[in-house]
Amino acid sequence: MREEMLxxxxxxxxxxxxILGQNVEEIEEKIAxxxxxxxxxxxxxxxxxxxxxxxxxxxxxxxxxxxxxxTFFATASAITRLGAIPIFVDxxxxxxxxxxxxxxxIESDKSIKVVIPVHLFxxxxxxxxxxxxxxxxxxxxxxxxxxSIGSEALVDGKKFKTGAIGEAGILSFFPTKNLGAYGDAxxxxxxxxxxxxxxxxLRVHGARxxxxxxxxxxxxxxxxxxxxxxxxxxxxxxxxxxARIKVAKRYSNLLGDFVQCxxxxxxxxxxxxxxxxxxxxxxxxxxxxxxxGVGTAIYYPIPLHLQKCFSFLGYKNGDFxxxxxxxRESLAIPIFPEIKPDEQEYxxxxxxxxxxxxx
Length: 359
Ligand SMILES: *Cc1c(COP(=O)(O)O)cnc(C)c1O
Prior knowledge:
By secondary structure, the chain is α/β, with parallel strands linked by helices. It is built from twelve helices and 13 strands.
C-alpha cells in the first residue's frame, strides 16, 4: 500500500489542512457505516477515547465503574483519570469478563454507573447476557473494542458489531491494532447525539464554538495524515480479518493436542487480534521459542488489580484467581494476515517439539 499511502499523504500536504479536516471526516463516516452507529468521533488515541466517552456518559469523581483486571492498562486508567473508582471482577478462562460476576457485583454495589467490557484479543464478549444484566439495573455499557474492530455478537437474535452495542464504544488505531494508523489515533462510537456532541467538544478543550469553553476539555484530535493512512487501509480491513481467522484455524489444528488453544464461540466472532495459547510451561516455552527465532509476547504479565499505581484500591494477590492464572500461563504467538503456512508450521513444530521433550 506504500504508493497509495504516499499519494494520499502528498495530497494531504498540498491541501494544507493538518488536523480534523476532510480525511478525518471521511474515516469517521466510513467507520460509523461499518460498525453501524449514528456517530463515530475521531480522537487522539484509544486511551483518550475511553476517557472522553466516560466523561460524556456522565462519569465523575467518586463514581464506580466496573471492568476487568485482565486488559490493557488504559481501560482502567481512563476511570481513575476522571477521579472515578475502578471496580474489578474476575474473567473467564477465555480472558473476557465473567458476566455472572458482573451480575453479582451490580446487585450488591448500587453505586456502579457504567460497565466496561473489553473484547480481548478480538473475541466478542457475551453481549447478549451482559446487556440484559445491565439493562435490568439501568447501568450503561461502554465497550472497549480497541482490539476487536469488525468482530460481531448476537444481541436479542440480531447481529451487531462490537462497539455498537453499548451506550458508547471505543476503537484504537494504534499501529499494531487490526486497523492501525502510522502513529496514535482513536475513535468514540455511539448512537447518542448527546454523547457524540460532548466528545466533539471535549476533544477541542471543551469548546463547541472556538474560544468559548463550556467545560474543561482536552487536546485530543486525529490529524489528517493518520486519517489518510486509515482511509487507505480501511478498504482491506475485512480481508485482513478473514485472513486472521484462517491463520487462527490453522494454528488450532496444528497445536490443539499440545497446548490450550483459543475457542471460538458459535454465536460471536473472534477476529484474532492476538492468538494466545495457554500452558503451565509458559516461561520456559517462551525462552525456548525466543532462542529458536520465534517472537512471542505476554498479554498481560501483571493483572491490573496488582499494579502498584492501583494499590490505593485495596486489592491483593488472590482476589482474582483466573486473571492471575492467565497472567502466568498465556503466551501470544505470531499472528498477522500475511503470515505464511510454512511459517506457522515452523512455529507449531517448535512448540510441539518443546512440549514433547518436556512431557
Ligand atoms: C490499545 C488498547 C487501548 C488504548 O489504545 P491507545 O490507542 O493505545 O491509547 C485501550 N484498551 C485496549 C484493550 C487496548 O488494547
